[in-house]
Each structure stands twice: as C-alpha cells, then as structure tokens.
Specification:
The protein is of the alpha/beta class and about 600 residues long. It contains 19 helices and 27 strands. The strands form five sheets. The chain has an eight-stranded antiparallel sheet with strand order 3-2-4-1-10-9-11-15. A seven-stranded antiparallel sheet has the order 5-6-7-8-12-13-14, with helices on one face. Strand 9 and strand 10 form a beta hairpin. The protein starts with a strand and ends in a 17-residue tail after the last helix. The structure holds 2-deoxy-2-amino glucitol-6-phosphate.
C-alpha cells in the first residue's frame, strides 16, 4: 500500500532514493517524501501528489547525505497532504512506515502527556515519538525492541537517527520489507521490485524481525533483540524491461503482452513432447486431496471463481472460494484433505497473506498462484505455481488475471486427469486447444477500433451492468471491476439469470449493458435474459464467439465476436474486449490509467 526505500552509502543518496521512489509509485501515490542525514541534521522534504511534484518543489540534487529514507504513500490515517506525507521526524528520529498502528490513539495520548508535540494526523508519527522517548533511557537495539513491542498492528519501517548517522533501522510485522546488498552501500525496500534496479541480492525480513543497515554491514535481530543470521537470495534474473516502450500506458502494453505471457505460461507447464502437463514437485499425492478452497481479493478473487467453475466441470472435488478479508475472520472448519490455494499477483496482499497465515497455523496444505515468486505469500506457502507474466505495473490487473486463470486451468486439467475424471483423449484434446490459445488471443486483441468507438457510451451513462452465466459470470464480474477502477463509473457484474430478482429495476432507456453470451450450454438462456433488458430500453453490447448461426435477437446495439475455441477457454477470450473497453473509457475521460485514484497495486494493509 505504501512504498519504502532506504539507502546507506559511501556517496550521496538523494537521486538513488528519488529513482527508487518512482519505481515504487505503483504501491501508492497520494504523497511522497524523503529524509537524508548530513552534518548532524535531518533534511526532510515531502509533498502531496506524485514523486514528480517532490522533484519540482525541492532541489533534490543538492540534498546532501549518504544515508536516507524515502516513501510513497497510500493514505490510511490522515488526508493526503504534505503534513501527513512521510517521513515523519522528531528532532532526532525520522521514520517511513507501511502498515497500520492499531493502538496509535492510546500511544499518542501517553506521549503527549510526556510533552511530545504532534504535527500530523497519521498513526506513523506515534512511532517517531515512541522511539525518541525510548532512546532517552536505552541503547539503540533495546530502544527498538521496546518500541516494536509497544506497537500493535502492522508495519514495515525505515528509521534514521540524527545522532547515529551511519545506519538505517528496518523492522517488519505484517508488511513486507527486504534488505538489498550493493557495492559500498546497502538498501532497505518494500519489495524486490524496488531494489531490482540496484541489486539482485536480497534478504527478506520475517515478521517480528528488525535489522541495522550500514553501508558495509547488515545485522539482523529477532523479536527479543537477539542477533540472527538470514539467507541472502539471488533475485530471478528475468529482468523484463520495465518501461512502456511505444505504449502510452503500462496497461496498454500489458493487455497486448497477453499472447506472449500466455504462451510463456503454457510452455512452463505443458510438456510438448509427451502432450502432458508437468506440475513439478507437487508435494501431495492426489488421493490426499478431496476438496479445494481458493482465496483471493479483487481480480484474484475472480480468478478463484473462474477456477471453481472449471473444478466443478472437470472434477468431482468439493470446491469453495472466499474473499480473503472475509475468510480470515470466519470460523473456518479446517480439514486435512483440503488444499488451500492463494491467488495473488503481488504475493503481498495483506488480507490474502493473513488468510495463508491462518491456514499455516492450522497446518493446512497451502499453494500460492503468484506473479512475484520472491513474495511473502510465495515464500510462506508449501507450494508455488508462478504465473510467469513479468512485472505488472498497471494497477488494474490484466495480463496477471489471464495468467492466474491459465495456471489454475492447467492445474485443474492435471488434477482431473490424475483422478481419471477425464479420459486420455479428452485430456490431450484440451491440451491441444490450450496450445492454440495464444494465437486466438492475438486475433481477439484486434478488436480495437470498434471497442474504442463504443467506450464513450459507457462514459455518458450513470451506470452499467455486465451479465453472464456459468463460465462467463466470473468474467462479467472482472469486466465490471475494470470499468469501475479505471473510469470511476458504477458498473455491476451480475449472473444473467438473477436480473429479474431485483436489478432489472435499474434498467432504463439507453443504459449500456454488456451481455457475455458465448455459444456454450448457457447461450439460449442468456439470450433470453438479454431480451429482458432490451425490452426495458437497455443498449446491449453482446460479446459472443464466432459462429455461422445468426444471433437469436435483433435490437442489439453492438456485437463483438471473439474467436472460437472449446467452452473451457472462452473466458480467456471474452476478457479481452472488456479490458479494452475499460482502457478506452478511461482514456477518453483523461484519467490516470496506470495509477487510478484511491488505489494501489499492492494492498499491504487490511
Ligand atoms: C485488480 O485490477 C485490482 N488491481 C485489485 O483488485 C487486485 O486484483 C487485488 O488488490 C489483489 O491484488 P493481488 O493479486 O496482488 O493480491
């Protein structure tokens, strides 16, 4: 939710911190700031808005200091402005924080009674004064240990000290934090992405741990303040280029990358020679698994729902799904023969991580479907299925969604085959169809001008509906989410058969309604539901697949025909026009497509 960087070096750090903050902006972009130490002074600069405004408002090039911390913010406590921006500093301590301090009000009252003055409305500022208070009576390591014990809630911290100008303290509980190792300098960062441009050697802190980062030494400590050793990991070298290339936005690039990312995903898991799926090192015997629970948030939750439909169609396993923020507080009945699958692009989503932690504590079988293999969710699951999409920078998830449902579909095909619930011929047929998917996506991406023309109708409407049945229903939800988060228009995904139970009242003359009606077993039913909304004045955008038979209805405003494939794979193709619809709608509105308002790419607070 926020991005943290810290650098301890033998040379000036301000421009390296600034560059890292630009890379971190996908994690939050309400405000930004940095603090360096030089000549016994904390030089704190911060401003509302993007990192660019920091550069415009301050002469950062001449900001002295070989030690510094930086932060990009997604507001939790306190409106986005320069006072609430991080870092927060006292006369001798400066702090950047990602997370939520749940007992900040109580601590603030006690610190005020001890004479501390607060400038901001944030929970973070409490940490500054607590450390300042504890340093009065304890040495650094003890003061840090005491402070962390007094904090309730989640945090990833970067802390510098006016009177100890050669080190940065980092601490982690519930929000990710990594250390990076460079030449004559070392780093602290929210995630590997923040550090990748400076190093490929990292160490991840675990919950309760803190570290002391100097330019030539890094020390790690456990919750009790005892020194510990930690592994140094080598980051995956797939240094996909992070720039937009010829594209106007990362999202546009990531939509067009999908044939490639799907091809890569298939290559990773499909053994061409033996026409088989290889899920290497799957740690369980298939007979040990009698039910599957899938958990995720937002788009990742839609992937879980898509997997549920495939599992019900291709296996006789019991399947349940849950939104992570609901699952983590439910009175769950954990069963040994259930496989829990956690779907997360970033692998850092706090709610999903908390759900995983709950399953780990109950010694459940856990599997992560993630895009970032160095992430917390990946590291703490028994088994990881990477989606191999390369960094997804656009906050609105596109290629990662297709990557998630691809890996889930591949896993489900394998499970179905191992349980002998599809025969060899069907299995091979489905693998053959799967291998044709990238070229079908390529063709479907060609629907561009037609969608661009349609998008303004959605912009002028006060709301829209996205309808689908069966395999198309998760895609209807995903399409509605894309439109909401990019063009800030109210859009609702709904099961087509459910409209008559209330939402039909929403339909009025000219309201745009997207109907996903591929020629699968639900086709006729969905077309009748489509009639119901047309009869009440809706302007229907019908998305179906190519076929010789005419669509069974007139009065359709627009039709988009995606390529033909087996029913299992139609959801991949139906998704593409919806991604583009949301993109062009936001483009026409002139909104920030890669960083929509109020959002962040990785929601690491609950
Ligand atoms: C999707 O477009 C959104 N960016 C959001 O719903 C996202 O999918 C959700 O926050 C989960 O993120 P994760 O996949 O990184 O866990």
């Amino acid at each position: 939710m926020c991005g943290i960087i810290g650098i301890s070096s033998n040379k000036s750090v301000s421009s390296s911190i600034l560059n890292s903050l630009k890379k971190l902006e996908y994690r939050g972009y309400d405000s930004a700031g940095l603090a360096t130490l030089s000549d016994g002074v904390i030089n704190e600069v911060k401003s509302e808005g993007r990192v660019d405004s920091l550069e415009k408002n301050f002469d950062l090039k001449n900001l002295k200091g070989n030690i510094g911390i930086g932060h990009v913010r997604w507001a939790t406590h306190g409106i986005p402005n320069s006072v609430n921006a991080h870092p927060h500093s006292s006369h001798n301590v400066s702090v950047v924080h990602n997370g939520i301090i749940e007992n900040s009000t109580t601590l603030k009252k006690s610190l005020i009674s001890k004479g501390h003055n607060f400038k901001s409305q944030t929970d973070t500022e409490v940490i500054v004064h607590l450390i300042t208070e504890n340093l009065r009576s304890s040495e650094l390591e003890l003061a840090i240990t005491k402070t962390l014990k007094q904090l309730q809630g989640s945090f990833a911290l970067g802390i510098v000290f006016k009177d100890i100008p050669d080190l940065i303290v980092g601490a982690r509980r519930g929000s990710p934090l990594a250390v990076g190792y460079g030449p004559n300098e070392n780093y602290l960062g929210s995630d590997s992405y923040a550090l990748k441009s400076m190093t490929n050697k990292v160490t991840y802190l675990d919950d309760g741990e803190f570290c002391i980062v100097k330019k030539d030494q890094v020390l790690f400590f456990n919750e009790q303040g005892k020194k510990i050793n930690k592994k140094i990991l080598e980051l995956s070298s797939n240094e996909a280029n992070y720039d937009k290339g010829d594209f106007k936005h990362f999202m546009a690039k990531e939509i067009e990358e999908q044939p490639t990312t799907i091809k890569t995903g298939i290559k990773e898991y499909v053994d061409n020679l033996n026409k088989d799926i290889s899920i290497f090192n799957f740690p369980w015997n298939i007979d040990e698994i009698n039910s599957i629970t899938l958990i995720g948030c937002g788009t990742a939750y839609h992937s879980c729902l898509m997997a549920k439909y495939w599992l019900e169609e291709l296996t006789s396993l019991e399947v349940s799904i849950d939104i992570a923020s609901e699952f983590r507080y439910r009175r769950n009945k954990f069963k040994k023969d259930t496989l829990y699958i956690f779907v997360s692009q970033s692998g850092e989503t706090a709610d999903t991580y908390a759900a995983l932690d709950l399953c780990n504590k109950n010694k459940m079988k856990t599997c992560a479907v993630v895009n970032v293999i160095e992430s917390s969710i990946a590291r703490d699951s028994n088994f990881v299925l990477p989606i191999h999409c390369g960094p997804e920078i656009g906050v609105a998830s596109t290629k990662a969604f297709l990557g998630q449902i691809l890996v889930l579909y591949i896993l489900i095909l394998k499970i179905s085959s191992l349980r002998k619930e599809i025969d060899k011929d069907q299995y091979h047929e489905k693998i053959k169809d799967l291998k044709a998917l990238p070229s079908l996506i390529e063709k479907t991406l060609l629907h561009d001008n037609d969608i661009q023309a349609i998008s303004s109708t959605f912009n002028d409407a006060k709301g829209s509906m996205f309808l689908g049945r069966g395999f198309s229903y998760p895609i209807a939800l995903e399409g509605a989410l894309k439109l909401k988060e990019l063009s800030y228009i109210h859009a609702e995904g709904y099961p087509a058969g459910e409209m008559k139970h209330g939402p039909l009242a929403l339909i009025e003359e000219g309201m745009p309604v997207v109907v996903l009606a591929p020629r699968d077993k639900y086709y006729k039913k969905t077309i009748s539901n489509m009639q119901e909304v047309i009869a009440r004045g809706a302007k229907v955008l019908l998305i179906t697949n190519k076929s010789d038979n005419e669509v069974v209805s007139e009065n359709i405003w627009e039709t988009i025909e995606v390529e033909n494939t087996n029913d299992d794979l139609l959801p991949f193709l139906l998704t593409i026009p919806l991604q583009k619809l949301a993109y062009y709608s936001a483009l026409k509105k002139g909104y920030d497509i890669d960083k929509p308002r109020n959002l962040a790419k990785s929601v690491t607070v609950e």
